Amino acid sequence: MIVDFKTLSRRLILSAIGLSKVYYLFPRARGRGVIFTLHHVRPLQNHAFSPNALLEITPEFLEKAIIIAKNSGYIPVALHDLPHLLKNGNPSDLYICFTLDDGYRNNKEYAAPIFKKHNVPFTIFICPGFVYRTRTLWWETVLEILRASDSIDFDFGSGIETIDVSTLFKKQKAFVKFSKYVETIDENQAVEQIDELARTKNIDPFSIVERELMDEKDLKELAQNPLCTLGGHTMTHCNLARVSEKRLHEEIEASCKSVSNISNHSVQTFAYPYGFKSATGVREFNAAQKLGLKVAVTTQAAVIQNSDLDNHTGLKRISLNGHYQKKKYVKALLSGLPFKFL
Ligand SMILES: [Zn+2]
Q: Of 29-33, 103-107, 248-252, which gets the smallest average pLDDT?
């Protein structure tokens, strides 16, 4: 698997912090705790070309992370309880929340039993477009196209190009090009064009959704689990910062309403798709607040602070990332220190 320079340098920083235990000198850097972001939880896939590897961890690593957090004194809590606990809990308590985005089938198969074994609450953010099979996951579709191809013909905006994707390096480069394409042109159109390309390669993009993501029946069953809470994640998994004010409200409101119908509970939590700085900001935080959400989360990395009480629809999360599946990395992430450097 190709690991980029950024990942390597982050590993070095995390290793230095995790192994030196320098964090014992700066206990206040831990803030009030951590909200972890997860996606896939499944056994190692072992594919040479895995550009989405950061989005998956093994069940063993999830269990290890829970044990490390508990042994380090963190109290596992449900995300929707966090504002109340920050305000009324013991100020020296450290909290840990586990959140999983998109609703992958393996969350139910592999993650839920581990959370049950350790009595840890968790929140899964659901996109009804995936649940009802009206929207595809472009990053998984592109992955399959590139794994299946040596060459592709595609219009990235300036006419049809033929791209050689015959080597691992070229596939990686093409994946980045597709990611930039989705981020720059109308996202609905981009997803449709990628789906169209998949069909020319005899790949059905909706069969990927069916294979990877839970449907309504699965979610209704999972919602019976007292440790599990379902949250909203928009209808179409779009970059909210790039849509109109009207659509921004519709995407949040309709997804929460749909998820509430599935779970039979009012939805209090929401995750902004992608969650990075160019996908969410003050306009989106205000929209989530206006729609009455108790907590909304980004993927911008930081520990929880007391000041987050004033910004409960813009809480930051730390990715429990497939590139960092070691004890020393978890210790470093929990310490809060890496976010002074990264
Ligand atoms: Zn997502």
A: 29-33
Question: How sure is the predictor about 324, in pLDDT bands with cuts at 50, 70 and 90?
Answer: confident
pLDDT in tens, 230-239: 999 999 999 9
* Contact (CB, 8 A) for 314 and 295: no
pLDDT band at 1 (very low <50, low <70, confident <90, very high): low
pLDDT at 341: 63
3 — pLDDT class (breaks 50, 70, 90): low
The reported pTM is 0.93
CA of 316 to the centre of ligand 1 (A): 15
Taking the centre of ligand 1 as the mean of its atom positions, its distance from the CA of residue 21, in whole angstroms, is 33
- Ion ligand 1 residue ranges (Cβ < 5 Å): 101-102, 273
Q: Distance from first CA to last CA of the chain, Å, rounded?
A: 23
Separation of CA 233 and ligand 1 centre (Å): 7
Q: Give the span between the Cα atoms of 257 and 116, in whole angstroms.
A: 27
Rounded-to-10 torsion of CA 139, 183, 181, 231: 20
Q: Tell me how many degrees the CA angle 41-276-268 measures, rounded to the nearest 5.
A: 70
Q: Note the pLDDT tens digit of each residue in 126-142.
A: 999 999 999 999 999 99
What's the 176 CA to ligand 1 centre distance in angstroms? 18
